[in-house]
Write a structure and sequence with these properties.
alpha+beta, 4-stranded antiparallel beta sheet, 2 helices
Length: 136
Amino acid sequence: MLGPKKVKHKVVQKGRMRRKAYRGSDLEFGDFGLQAKECGLMTARQIEAARIAITRHVKKGGKIWIRVFPDKPTFKKPAETRMGKGKGNFEAWVAVIKPGRILYEIEGVDREVAKEAFRLAGYKLPFATKFLSRSY
């Protein structure tokens, strides 16, 4: 699973997901991309599950770029626990996703193959996504 090797602070604040993404909202590497339409948290497991769905559909062809990295820790208290007594235990590494963020890019495959691969990957994610293609 993805996750940082070293962090400055072990525990971070939750934060807020407001506004659109101003970074990472354009296709930079590939011809086709998968863009987030809503905000949300994407866990390392979800990133990996979507990547596997894409690579299985494209088989041997094409090159894939993962444009997100989970660098924020999330914490969760055990079930049926009373309020208070601290923040809880570490649960997973997540990536904060804002609307407009490009999640994956691909090149070297047909438009229909890329569209189907990204449709399958979109089912693995906790928010709505959109297929993008580079306009020539």
